[in-house]
Design a protein that fits this description.
This protein is of the alpha/beta class. It has a domain at 27-44 and 56-109. It is built from 4 helices and 4 strands. The protein has a 4-stranded mixed sheet, sandwiched between helices. The longest helix is centred in the middle third of the chain and has 11 residues, at 59-69. It is elongated, with a radius of gyration of 16 Å.
């Protein structure tokens, strides 16, 4: 049965709003995005940012940031945010994009600081 993927559906309301955040390793000398961006630009291509995988909720925001700000970072797709968070805490990753609800839990415990 043919249908129009754009016009055949009616949006009746949002279900959730869950912002994405950039979590930065404590080894990076930055406490905000401007400092992180300057750091990444000074180390062209040597700053890596993990995501939950290609095309995921966490991948799309960092690609938008990377292209909009011309930040020379390497995006590393993982098989979920769990392995990426482990590598961020182990300082294998410089940063990762995460949903705010999960990132707050990581930041509040911060055993790697």
């Amino acid at each position: 049965m043919p249908y129009d993927g754009v016009n055949s559906f009616t949006i009746i309301g949002g279900i959730t709003a869950n912002p994405a955040v950039l979590a930065i390793s404590t080894h990076i000398p930055a406490t905000n995005f401007a400092q992180f961006n300057a750091y990444a630009k000074s180390r062209t291509g040597r700053v890596n940012v993990g995501t939950a995988g290609n095309g995921s909720f966490t991948h799309l925001p960092i690609e938008l940031v990377r292209t909009a700000t011309a930040t020379p970072i390497t995006v590393i797709p993982y098989k979920g945010t769990g392995p990426a968070a482990t590598d961020l805490m182990g300082h294998t990753l410089d940063a990762m994009v995460e949903q705010i609800t999960t990132a707050l839990g990581l930041a509040s415990t911060a055993p790697w600081r």
